[in-house]
Design brief:
32% helix, Rossmann fold, single chain, 6-stranded mixed sheet, 211 residues, 6 helices, alpha/beta
Length: 211
């Protein structure tokens, strides 16, 4: 592992196509107009960070956020299917209330065991962690002082649980707004979460010590 690395872990910008609360997993939605503005704000906030590499999932909302942030540094972007959001199978894209009505038993089971429950044809959060954490650890092993990862709400929460040594059963205690920034410092003695859920419109990214 490099002696020092700072990970800028970002959630993709807003992609909602209406005001209905839906399950959004690997359905491939583009950014909406608000999302484009958020990504442009992220680009301004992060413009002076000398990124070594930029990682994102290959879903449009993640890739387009990374592309807008990167600007003329798009050659740094590495889209990775391994970084996709949790697969929600038959539930993906459907309104939450509709799923509650269509799958009442499964909906109850999800509430009882959030970590291990799989929607029909989808992944559990345990499956997601088994996919994401080895990939995240591999990215940490690559040299470079400043890396950008444009992830998803579920992906980021699983990574943050890993950084904090926190059970993934508590992942929804960690807020991840659209276009938020999380700062993770990686050193030989381990990882530290420096900042979490920084809003791109409301707060600057704090300076990171290289000592």
């Amino acid at each position: 592992m490099p002696s020092h690395k700072t990970i800028y872990l970002v959630r993709h910008a807003d992609c909602r196509q209406d005001d209905i609360k839906r399950y959004i997993g690997q359905i491939d939605l583009p950014l909406n107009q608000t999302g484009v503005k958020q990504a442009l704000s992220l680009a301004r906030t992060l413009q002076d960070i000398p990124f070594t590499r930029v990682y994102c999932s290959d879903l449009k909302r993640s890739y387009d956020t990374a592309r807008i942030i990167s600007g003329d540094r798009c050659h740094l972007i590495d889209p990775m299917p391994e970084l996709r959001e949790i697969a929600l199978g038959a539930w993906d894209g459907f309104p939450m209330e509709e799923i509650h009505q269509m799958y009442p038993q499964e909906y109850r089971e999800r509430g009882i065991d959030l970590v291990n429950f799989r929607p029909p044809g989808g992944e559990s959060f345990h499956d997601l962690a088994a996919r994401i954490i080895p990939q995240f650890n591999e990215l940490l092993s690559i040299s470079g002082e400043h890396d950008l990862i444009v992830g998803h709400a579920g992906v980021n929460r699983v990574i943050l649980c890993h950084v904090l040594g926190m059970p993934i059963a508590h992942l929804f205690r960690l807020q991840q707004d659209y276009a938020c920034i999380n700062l993770v410092e990686v050193a030989r003695d381990g990882m530290r979460l420096l900042s979490m859920n920084i809003g791109c419109f409301t707060a600057p990214v704090p300076p990171v010590s290289q000592d």
